[in-house]
Amino acid sequence: MPAASSRPNPFALGAAFAEVIVLPDLARSGGTDPGRALVGHDGQVGSAERAAELAAGLAGRGVDVELVGPCSMDALLAAAGALEAPGAMVAAEPGSGRPAGVLLVRADGRPVEPGSGLPAVLSHALAEPAAVESAAAETPGDGTIRLRPALASYAELLRSLADLTRVRPLTVVVEAGHGVAALTVPAVLGTAVGLPALPLEIIVLSAGAAGDLGSAPAPHPSDPAHLLALRAEVVARGADLGLAFDADGDRVVVVDENGDLVSAAVVAMLVGLREVERERREGAAPTVVLDRLLSEAAGDLLTAAGAAVVRSGGGGSSLRAAMAASGAVVGASPGLHYAFRDLYLADSGLLAAMHVLATLGSGGVPLSAFAEVYQPYAQSGEMEVPVDDVAAARARVVAAYVTRAGAGPVQVDAPDGGDAAAGLTVRHWAAAPRWWFDLRPGPAGTTVRLTVEAADEDIMEKVRDDVLALVRAGDAPKTANKE
């Protein structure tokens, strides 16, 4: 999503999307109709109004617009993929407190990103937004705008991808966070759109009043404060698990029956095993993509299950790009991205949760048992460390671990061509003691982010403390001010 300082108004963005992407793509494909696009939005305050303005900009350039209403990000992408139509989703970044941004996708489901047309769209929209609006007002296009609710077809699709009809009865507490999960969960897991009832009892928290989903800001789903009520309700009701969604429903946090957080790596393993098994039943050779920061345990387990494992760089875009290149059936990252080939490479927190429910509901083992067995390694979690000079901190780590090989032979992954300020992943996993760490610059350029994993807690702490010492070694001494 564009930064706040470079945000075009929604009308201008819709007009630019039509002129730079929608209509040229239609012409290249040989289409002769006026073209159409889907527009959806999350439940945050102002998102519906921005979606309507964006739709007006598209229609002003002659594009027929179908408003799918409040929906999850993956529901919009699924509808766009099924209809082979471009789309736009107005959604807030979780926990940002900023106005909603817009995700644009082409008719083949590919996001419009920095390397695939986004700068041209933004440049066009920002150049003369007032002139764009004025021109549209003087010479309005003949595009139409109509409603096309997507929840029913979305629910049918997700149920076809994760069958829950034969699971044992489960009680599920859902923290909707005043977001679209308040609509999507009852539609997919309940009977809100007329589908048969499943053996699930669903309790939805923070649903918001009807038509007022965004009555409170949507936090990031992994925010500990956001999970307090969910964890307490799971324990109080004796529920089987809890689910916390972000504003647009594409990310999910899972808690077990004790209210304890289930790691993204464990969720990835539960999801990946089911997708790998399905691929093998259909006679295919399964491939999965795992973010390089996801626990080695996930790669070990899925490889043992018969999958080829591809490691991707950081972020959802890299994950989806690697999936598209490898034909992977599923991809996962510790950033709560769970992407699915059969859902047009969309991230889907709800489909990931359904796979967890299917596994849990197929036997009598509680979710905490899976979390314990599937996470045998010790991981530090991501730590953000202030530094005076990011490049110098990285150089000290490279000198110690790579140049001098002080810890023995290692495998090094340096994204972005090994740039001095880029990320760095160092692995010593082929021989004992097994460990790896990842060091990346923080978003503000004044911190680094460190993640360490090892085969046991002692080795993890030793590597963590050694890398932290190297990172901090060049910082100027901090002295307290004296009166």
Automatic annotation (TrEMBL):
InterPro entries: A-D-PHexomutase_a/b/a-I, A-D-PHexomutase_a/b/a-I/II/III, A-D-PHexomutase_a/b/a-II, A-D-PHexomutase_a/b/a-III, Alpha-D-phosphohexomutase_SF. SUPFAM superfamilies: Phosphoglucomutase, first 3 domains. Pfam families: PGM_PMM_I, PGM_PMM_II, PGM_PMM_III. Keywords: Isomerase, Magnesium, Metal-binding, Phosphoprotein. One of its GO terms (molecular function) is metal ion binding. GO terms for biological process: carbohydrate metabolic process. It comes from the Bacteria. Its cofactor is Mg(2+). The keyword Phosphoprotein applies. Residues 32-114, 153-259, 277-377 form the Alpha-D-phosphohexomutase alpha/beta/alpha domain. Belongs to the phosphohexose mutase family. This is Phosphomannomutase/phosphoglucomutase.
